[in-house]
Amino acid sequence: MKNKIPKLYVILLFVYFGLGRFLVIGQDSNLKEKLSLDAVNFIVLGDWGRMGDDFQIPVAAQMAKTAKEIHAQFFISVGDNFYPKGVASTLDPQWRYSFEDIYKDFSLHREWYSILGNHDYMGNPDAQVEYTKISRRWVMPGRYFEKDILLKDRNKSVMQLLFIDTNPLIPEFYKNKEYGPNVMTQDTTLQQIWIDQSLAREDVQWKIVIGHHPMFTGSKARREGYDTRSIRSSLKTKFEKNKVDMYIAGHDHSLQHLISETGIHHFVSGSASEATDVDMLPMSKFAKDEYGFFVFSATAQEIRVFAISHTGEILYQTTIDKK
């Protein structure tokens, strides 16, 4: 007589394969399989601090799942960290209600390399710099700074991350009653010199620049806006001259990938709490008005990029090879 499978065992199998799958519904279980074992994985989000309003909480929850799945080593925030008007000080309640209490999962307690957006300039931008001394994970040692990431190859290749402050690069901001006072406290010429010197390095495998305002964007409201035009005027030639591989921005509340005529990859990741309409440009490879973030997985040979929605769906993926 053949052995019968106990009913309890059948029930447990059903719970594991049935209910277990239900618990992770919306999470794309194939993401980890798409990454190289020797890659450095990180998540980029932008335009998020709304005290949990809009879709900030669902996006944060999915970020936690994704970060745990891919073993994210750090996070990058591309600005507009606190709405509507930044923070007043390191004791501002926004630190708790828009950041600490929202991104509280253990998988999110890695370094958050952060820059300033225009909304952050409506408060006290230097308070976000000062919070670096208080937080174990918030990293903003200055309004602009540089970070080298060591890649996992035999040659000890370096991925250069250049975090810039785009706000002083926009002339109209100096006349703005809310942005102007803080913009004028920064030496824009000094930052431009620093950008030139930093990008001139020849000892790095990848050159990636992170700023709040995009150089190119598909949204009708901003594709030829004064801020977008100003960024192109200030940075486009610098990037091309120094062979920048990638520029990552936010500001537009969407997820986008565009490639310029010179081959520079532009990403917009600004929908970590709100998503607004976006269209495709001739240079666009992907554009979506969806709540979410980008995952970057870097090796010395390639960087794989994934747009992830708040439900865990892989909306888009691409691979950038090192030429």
Describe the structure.
- This protein is of the alpha/beta class.
- The chain has a single domain, classed as Purple Acid Phosphatase, chain A, domain 2 (4-Layer Sandwich).
- Helices cover 24% and strands 23% of the residues.
- The protein has helices at residues 7-23, 56-70, 94-100, 125-130, 180-183, 188-199, 226-241, and strands spanning 40-45, 74-77, 111-114, 138-139, 145-150, 158-163, 206-210, 246-249, 255-259, 265-269, 284-288, 292-298, 302-309, 314-321.
- The strands form 2 sheets. The chain has a 7-stranded mixed sheet, with helices on one face.
- β7 (206-210), α7 and β8 form a beta-alpha-beta unit.
| Spatial arrangement of strands, main beta sheet | 4-3-2-1-12-13-14
CATH top level class name? Alpha Beta
Order of helices and strands: HEHEHEHEEEHHEHEEEEEEE
Cα distance spanning the termini: 66 Å
Name the helicity range. 10-25%
Structural class of the secondary structure composition? alpha/beta
Largest sheet: 7 strands, mixed
State the low-pLDDT regions, or none.
1-27
How many helices in DSSP terms? 7
How many domains? The number is 1
Q: Examine the secondary-structure arrangement and name the CATH architecture.
A: 4-Layer Sandwich
The pLDDT mean sits at 92
Using only C-alpha atoms, the radius of gyration works out to 21 Å
CATH superfamily: Metallo-dependent phosphatases
Shape: globular
What name does the CATH topology carry? Answer: Purple Acid Phosphatase, chain A, domain 2
**DSSP E strands, number:** 14
Strand content: 15-25%
